[in-house]
Write a structure and sequence with these properties.
This protein is an alpha/beta fold. The chain has a single domain, classed as 2-Layer Sandwich (Histidine-containing Protein, Chain: A). It is built from five helices and five strands; from the N terminus they run H-E-H-H-H-E-E-H-E-E.
Amino acid sequence: MNKLTPILLSGILLFGAGACSDAAKTSADAPSSTTENTNSPPPAETVQKTQSDATSDIRKAQANSDIRAREQRNNVTGGDAIRADDDLKSEVRSKLEVNITKGALTVEAKDGLVTVGGTVPSQTDLAKIEPLAKEIKGVKEVNVTAVVAPAAPASPSSNQ
C-alpha cells in the first residue's frame, strides 16, 4: 500500500492539471483567450444552440444556485477574504453566462483584476459586463476587451 499511494497521488495530480484550462468561457464557441481576435463571431446556428442551452430553466437554476452558494460562503468569511484567481474567473463567468446569454465571452483574473474578452451581440450587453463583474466580491477592477459583433449568418453550405 505504501508503494501504491505515491502512484495514485501522482495520477490524480496529472489528471487535475490536464483538466484545467487557462480561461473560463461562457460558451464552447467563445475565444480561447481574452486577447484572441474577436472580430469574427460564431455562426448564427451555433449561437442559437448555445443560447438555448444557456437559457434553459435547468441551466439558469444551476448557475443561480452556484452564485448564491458562493456568495453565502463569502459572507461567512466576512466577504473580505483574499479570493483565488480561479474562483473569481469562475464566478464572473457564471454571472455573465446567466445575464448575457447570447455572448461568447472569455474571462481571466489576476489579483482582483478581471479581463473579459470575446463578443456580444449588442452595445447594451457590452455595457452590462463591467457592472455584473463588479458584483462579485473580490473583483477590484474590470478590463473589458469584448466587442460588439452580431452572430454571423448561417453559411449556405450548412443549409444543404
